[in-house]
Each structure stands twice: as C-alpha cells, then as structure tokens.
Write a structure and sequence with these properties.
The protein is α+β, with helices and mostly antiparallel strands. It folds into two domains: 5-25 and 238-437, UDP-n-acetylglucosamine1-carboxyvinyl-transferase, Chain (Alpha-beta prism), CATH 3.65.10; 28-235, Enolpyruvate transferase domain (UDP-n-acetylglucosamine1-carboxyvinyl-transferase, Chain, Alpha-beta prism), CATH 3.65.10. The protein contains 15 helices and 23 strands. The protein has helices at residues 28-37, 54-66, 91-94, 104-111, 130-138, 169-180, 195-206, 240-253, 268-276, 319-326, 347-352, 376-379, 390-402, 412-416, 422-428; strands at residues 6-10, 18-23, 45-48, 69-73, 76-80, 113-117, 142-146, 149-153, 161-163, 185-189, 210-212, 219-222, 234-235, 254-260, 280-284, 289-293, 306-307, 331-336, 356-361, 364-369, 385-386, 406-410, 432-436. Helix 1 (28-37) packs parallel to helix 2, helix 1 (28-37) packs parallel to helix 7 (195-206) and helix 5 packs parallel to helix 6 (169-180). The longest helix is centred in the middle third of the chain and has 14 residues, at 240-253. The N and C termini lie close together (9 Å). Bound molecules: uridine-diphosphate-2(N-acetylglucosaminyl) butyric acid (EPU). Residues 29, 32, 98-99, 122, 125, 127-132, 166, 168-171, 192, 315-317, 339-340, 390-391, 418 line the site of uridine-diphosphate-2(N-acetylglucosaminyl) butyric acid (EPU).
C-alpha cells in the first residue's frame, strides 16, 4: 500500500517567498549504526533522537527477527539484545537496505557467527562489500559464500591490522564494532571520518569500549576480550544531510528559512559552497541554527568544479539537491561525483522538467542555468516522475516546488527511507503538496 503513494506538488513558479522554520531530525545514518551497535551491550539500551524513517523501521524488523526485543516511543528506541537467539539476517529484508550488513560486525563480535545476503539499498552504484569481508578475514574469520549468502565464522576475533583500500563509512563503523569485544588490539587505517562514526564510538566508549582515533584516518580498538558493554544511553546527532537538503532548498525558495536543531559544524562544506555562490546564510553555532534567505537569488553565481568527497568534503548525499541549485543560477556549473559510479540518473528527470544539463560522463555533469522548471502536468497530462533514490527523490521534489504548475512524483517510499515527515515539514513552510495513495 505504502509503495503506491505519490506526492502531488503545486509548484511555486516565480513566487518564491516562503518563510518558516524546519526542525532537523536525528541522523538516520547515525541511528542505524547505533541500532546495530546495541548488540554489543549487556542489556537493554535506549537510543534517543531516532528519526521515524523507513530505513529505521526495516532494521527494527530485521533485529526483531533475530530475537531482539525492541520498543519504540516517540523518538526513543529501546533495544534488548540479550533476547537474540538467531544470527542469520533475513534474506528478503536485507535486500531492501544496505545498512543490514552493519549488523554483521556486532553479531560476529558477540556470537562468533552470522549468515547474510549481499545487501540491497539505493541504486546508485555497485556498492560491493569486499572491504567488510577482507576486514573480517584479517580479524581471523572464515568467510564462505554459497547460494548468494555469506557465511562467516570467527573462531574468536584476535585483533589485527586493517587497511581500507577505499574510504568506507559503513566499513569503518562495522569493523570497529567487530573489533570491540575481540582479544587484543586492532588498528584500522584509511578510515572514514564522518561525524556519525564519532557519534557511534563516543557511545560505545561510554559503555566500556576502548576505541581511540574516531574522526581521524587511524582508529585503534583495544578489544574487551569478550566483556559486553554496560548499557548507556545513546543520542543520535542531528541529520546533516537533511539539514543540508533544506538549506539548499531554502536558498532557492525562502525569504527566510530557519533551520533549527542542526549541527552547523557538520555543514561547513555546503555552507561554504552556497556562500561562495552568493547565498545569504547566517550560522549560529551556539544556538544550533542556520538561517538562509533567497534575497540575493538573482545574483547567484555558478558552481565551479564541485567534487563530492568524504567528510569533511562536500557530501555525495547532497549532490542531487546541489545540482538542482545549479539549475537556478546564471551560467555554467560543473559537478563531479567521486564516490558512486551511478548517481546522476535523476538528471534525465530534471531535463524532462526543463533543465539544461549535459552529462560529460557517468560521473560528471555540466549544468547551464537558469532553468524555468515545468510541472509534470504542464509537460503532459498524467505524467509522473519517479523518485529514484532517497536523495535524488529530494532533488525531484525541489524541482517540483520550483516549477510552474503541478507535478506528480511516484516512489515516495524511497524518499521516506531518509527524510522524516517530508510532507509535514514542507507544508509547514507553506509548500502546497499532498500525499496520494493511487
Ligand atoms: N565500497 C566498496 N567496498 C566496500 C564498501 C564500500 O567498494 O566493501 C565503496 C562503495 O561502493 C562506494 C564507496 O566505497 O563507492 C563509499 O561507500 P561507503 O561504504 O562509504 O558507503 P556506505 O557506508 O554504504 C554511507 C551512507 C550513504 C552515503 C555513504 C557515503 C549509511 C547507511 N549510508 O553508505 O548514505 O552515501 O556513506 O557518504 O550510512 C543516503 O543516506 O542516501 C546514503 C546513500
């Protein structure tokens, strides 16, 4: 039923003078890892500021099938890992979500075995798991692949040295968790430095883990030799990708948009790029608030050779919203995707709505602005544009809000994976939209 849902958006056209406040939710990409990390604790743990997104619900389902007892109230999830009886990750559910593979680290650390399928997730590139498997082997596990399942047994993790050939957020988090209860010391080199990793590690350390270096390229884990962690409360950091998405949108449609409950420290790259393009932004680090205005929109300048990058660089997860921004400035912008091989598919949808974007390669686009977007009903009656993944979905919503006329967007369940209450938050700003179920 949920999968049938669509968004109908009445575009603003030239009337871009919204005003309002948006409150940022907890980071789904932090909360999902903490849910997996709960397996390392000796008793129920409370996870706070967990966003109500579809991905969180899928991991709840997967963990419940493992036997974990999970309760949810408002933005708090309480997970009791001591009731886990099964270490085989559900094949069908894992096919829907990449983060399912992150459960394998804590399951191996605690139970010494797990079976899981190659994970699914957004269609943005091939997204292999070789770095996870190599890491497990380095820690002493045997990995057997059969019937499209991976069967891993550890024979007791003993610590070791792991060098990531490629910087990987999920790989870093998962191998850190895998090493947390091991015998001896594990050193991980060329780690990702995302704030979500720091958020996870600080919590594990409060529970008794001995991990240093999170937020730098080298992380050292001194294993607890099998001792489970003492239950302590976790709180997810604000979602920097949700905040960045609204920041970019606000720069185009709002006389004044106040973004509250965010962490400006985590948004330096996007604030810098937008400011350089002429966007008026006021950052209040102490109040955890950013105010953005489109006052100077007529004078926005093109984006010069933007390259997505691991943190603290410009995040790949904001590449699609930034491409929409580039369609609204005067002149030629260039955007290069360095993390994924296949993350520009949505460009053809923007082009269908009127954008002038040329693909130089699968990773490289040139955007010629400004574009006057046409709503799908203006292009042809009954036309529907699909959300292709979480972030491309937000980008298409942006184009529909900027457009003249009404647009219909399908696959809303993909946007729901990462944006809590998208429709409610946009309505609160004055965007006219409704969710329809057929
Ligand atoms: N990679 C490998 N082998 C591996 C693991 C990764 O080649 O074993 C490659 C990936 O294919 C990709 C690159 O390394 O090309 C980086 O992937 P990474 O492992 O860092 O990504 P992830 O941990 O799977 C998280 C976020 C993504 C975000 C990326 C990059 C979560 C649940 N997901 O994914 O978020 O794009 O980091 O910042 O944390 C989203 O929220 O929309 C989303 C896709």
């Amino acid at each position: 039923m949920e999968r049938q849902e669509k968004l109908k958006i009445n575009g603003l056209g030239a009337e871009r003078n919204l005003k309002g406040t948006v409150y940022i939710s907890g980071a789904k990409n932090a909360a999902l890892k903490a849910m997996a990390g709960a397996v390392l604790f000796d008793g129920p743990v409370e996870l706070h500021n967990v966003p109500d997104t579809a991905d969180v619900r899928t991991i709840v389902e997967i963990m419940t099938k493992l036997g974990a007892r999970i309760e949810s109230k408002d933005d708090v999830l309480t997970i009791d890992p001591n009731t886990i009886t099964n270490t085989d990750i559900d094949r069908k559910l894992a096919g829907n979500i990449r983060a399912s593979v992150m459960l394998t680290g804590p399951l191996l650390a605690r139970y010494g075995k797990t079976t899981f399928p190659a994970p699914g997730g957004c269609v943005i590139g091939c997204r292999p798991i070789d770095l996870f498997l190599n890491g497990y082997r380095k820690l002493g596990a045997s990995v057997v692949e059969h019937d499209e399942l991976f069967d891993i047994k550890d024979g007791n993790f003993h610590g070791g040295e792991i060098f990531f050939d490629k910087v990987t957020v999920g790989g870093t988090e998962t191998l850190v968790m895998a090493a947390t209860l091991a015998e001896g010391r594990t050193i991980l080199y060329n780690c990702a430095m995302e704030p979500e990793i720091v958020n996870l590690v600080e919590w594990l350390n409060r529970g008794g883990a001995k991990i240093s270096g999170a937020g730098t390229p080298t992380i050292t884990v001194d294993g607890t030799a099998g001792k489970l962690l003492k239950p302590v409360k976790y709180e997810a950091i604000p979602d920097r990708i949700e905040a960045g998405s609204y920041l970019i949108l606000g720069a185009l449609i709002a006389k004044e948009l106040e973004i509250k409950d965010c962490e400006p420290e985590h948004l330096r790259a996007v604030v810098s790029i937008l400011s350089d393009a002429g966007v008026k932004i006021n950052v209040d680090d102490k109040a955890k608030t950013i105010v953005v205005s489109n006052d100077n929109a007529k004078n926005y300048t093109p984006l010069n050779d933007i390259r997505t990058h691991e943190y603290p660089g410009f995040p790949t997860d904001l590449q699609a919203p930034l491409t929409v921004f580039a369609t609204q400035v005067n002149g030629k912008s260039a955007i290069f995707e360095t993390i994924y091989e296949n993350r520009f598919k949505y460009v053809e949808d923007l082009v269908a709505m009127g954008a002038n974007i040329r693909a130089i390669s699968e990773r490289d686009v040139e955007v010629n602005g400004p574009t006057t977007f046409k709503g799908t009903s203006e292009i042809s009656p009954g036309m529907i544009i699909p959300a292709r993944d979480i972030r491309a979905g937000f980008a298409i919503v942006m184009a529909a809000i900027l457009a003249h006329g009404e647009s219909t967007i399908s696959n809303v369940h993909l946007i729901d994976r990462g944006y809590e209450d998208l429709a409610g938050k946009l309505k609160g700003l004055g965007v006219e939209l409704e969710r329809i179920s057929n």
